[in-house]
Structure prediction request, 215 residues.
Amino acid sequence: MITKFPFWKDLTEEEKAYTAKCCVTKDYPKGSYIHSGREDCLGPSIIIKGEARVCLLSEEGREITLYRLYPGDCSILSASCIMDKITFDTHIIAQTDCTLLTILPGAFKKLSENNLHARCFVYELATERFSSVVWTMQNIIFKGFDRRLAGFLVEEYDRTGKSEIKLTHEAIANYISSAREVVARMVKRFAEEGLIEQKRGSIKIIDIDALRDLA
Prediction:
């Protein structure tokens, strides 16, 4: 899995051996914190198994989900000790049981100082992630909640290829940065309009085209 890092092919044999020696694999149970703020420097990581959620957490405990990570995805915003320009606290939560492969931060810092491709990887991925953050904030600020929920359901349908989305109202609320009660009301409205069917612990999409139009 270490070969999934985009810069791997541009390392020397010596750098590859050094990087492989400085990698750790760790399991995180569902609901646990993989990373919890600036003081916790994780280092560049790849999701081997599971799904994680990257979010901002206010002092009052309110969460805003920025984006999600799936197997094969890289995480860099957790490496605050490598990117000293990151001045806000991101948290990474395991949405399912997760396994991560991580390059120890000190080792990667040394590697990036000596290898241009490793250094560029950091800034290219950070740019990509910040684009996701801006897109998320635009949705929260400018889109009505009905459009946000419709967009989320369409995204899940396209991602999984299944019409039944096995998520509770609480889980959906976490993903789209809302309250469970708000999600429940809108799900009920969508069901009354014939767009979806409510089931225990899941939602079945009935009219995907109408949801796409709404989103």
